[in-house]
Design a protein that fits this description.
- By secondary structure, the protein is mainly alpha-helical.
- Helices cover 38% and strands 4% of the residues.
- It has a domain of 40 residues.
- The N and C termini lie far apart (106 Å).
Length: 95
């Protein structure tokens, strides 16, 4: 049961029409292969740059030969300290 009296809209929404047909762009296989090779080379270069940056960031640890996960000196055992409270001074009763 279709209602021909009302348009096919609902408030601000409208029904979508047919998609616009696009002409297929002919791209040769050689151009696609060239683009894929360029993307692979770019990916390899970015990976090498990332590895070099990570190595440079970790270089100070190797340079100082800092221990990783090991303390140089053991911590002293903690001891309880008693903090003395000052007794409030009693005001002299002067009358």
């Amino acid at each position: 049961m279709s209602q021909s009296s009302r348009p096919a809209t609902r408030g601000h929404l409208r029904l979508a029409g047919l998609p616009v047909e696009r002409r297929p762009v002919a791209e040769s296989r050689a151009a696609l292969l060239l683009r894929a090779a360029a993307a692979a080379v770019a990916l390899v270069l970015l990976t090498c740059i990332a590895w070099i940056a990570a190595a440079l960031a970790l270089l100070p640890i190797a340079w100082r030969r800092a221990p990783v996960g090991v303390r140089l000196r053991p911590l002293r055992p903690r001891e309880a300290r008693i903090i003395p409270f000052h007794r409030p001074r009693q005001k002299a009763l002067t009358r």
